[in-house]
Amino acid sequence: MKDKSFVSIDDFSKEEIIEVLDMAEEFEKQPVRNLLKNKIIANLFFEPSTRTRLSFESAINKLGGSIIGFTDASSSSVSKGESLHDTIRMVSSYSDLIVMRHHIEGSARYASEISSVPVINAGDGANQHPTQTMLDLYSIRKTQGTLDNLNIFMVGDLKYGRTVHSLMMAMSRWNATFNFISPEELKMPDENKLYLENLGLKYYEHTDFTDIISKADIIYMTRVQRERFSDPMEYEKVKNVYVLRDSMLKNTKPNMKILHPLPRVNEINPDVDSNPKAYYFNQALNGVYTRQAILCKLLGIGL
Ligand code: CP
């Protein structure tokens, strides 16, 4: 496992996912442990981030590791025209593990093929965000007591939202039923639906969810990904299509939880924040524990 990268959620077996979630539980009980002493982690963020970058930094600091890297490619030699190939080749000789966010789909897989150390995909374009999925799974298991047989509602930008692509793949291993709620322009891509069909799993597509909200165990809200639209007018048409409000939650299951990878724009009204069903800020905190566990797993470090 020492040299394995984490580029897609499918890079971990079901057993490995459970192992990481169990390890994250231990980190939640005791986050400060000197397990990454003498390890250097390179954080290469070619795209903006708050939660992913800072929760990785928090995780590394709590484990006694060191951090190098950049938060803006314009401060690196990429701005002089250096290729991703050369950047990764160099950085992998300076570090024990690379965490990379990049706007190009497939860039993390490419980096993992060049790198001499493990690469963690911190989001590659509209493709995948597997460490977000690990914290989503942790949050779902923690709040529902199980990952099995849940009714998952995914709402918003299902076309460009990389978090829903990774989460759908992951939850398909636990026999989830999916309800995809999106405008026509932002439907879940066919290749993802085919993935579920090949597994014999049920999914339903809707443009509204007010009449069916009572069935949800998890409502996973997403932001419309403005940065992925080539035509700003197309974004304007769909940007506020779903706004979850506290008044809509009256007939939901008592243990239903609302997740959101964040950042939010308008899709969850602030009046939801004080509802006990709102879990998105706790979800972001869970990112520290799960990223501690992922780092240790990839570096072959046990508790
Ligand atoms: N959820 C998430 O990826 O947030 P950031 O873009 O702030 O890292």
In short:
With about 300 residues, this protein is of the alpha/beta class. It is built from nine helices and nine strands. The protein has helices at about 15-30, 50-60, 85-95, 105-115, 130-145, 160-170, 190-200, 230-240, 280-300; strands spanning about 40-45, 65-70, 95-100, 120-125, 150-155, 175-180, 205, 220, 255-260.
Topology, please?
Elements: H1 14-29, E1 40-45, H2 51-62, E2 66-70, H3 84-94, E3 97-102, H4 107-114, E4 119-124, H5 130-144, E5 151-155, H6 162-171, E6 177-181, H7 190-199, E7 203-206, E8 218-221, H8 232-238, E9 257-259, H9 280-298
Parallel strand pairs: 1-2, 1-3, 3-4, 5-6, 5-8, 6-7, 8-9
Helix pairs in contact: 1-5, 1-9, 2-9, 3-4, 5-6, 5-9
The chain binds phosphoric acid mono(formamide)ester.
Phosphoric acid mono(formamide)ester binds at residues 49-52, 123, 132, 261-263.
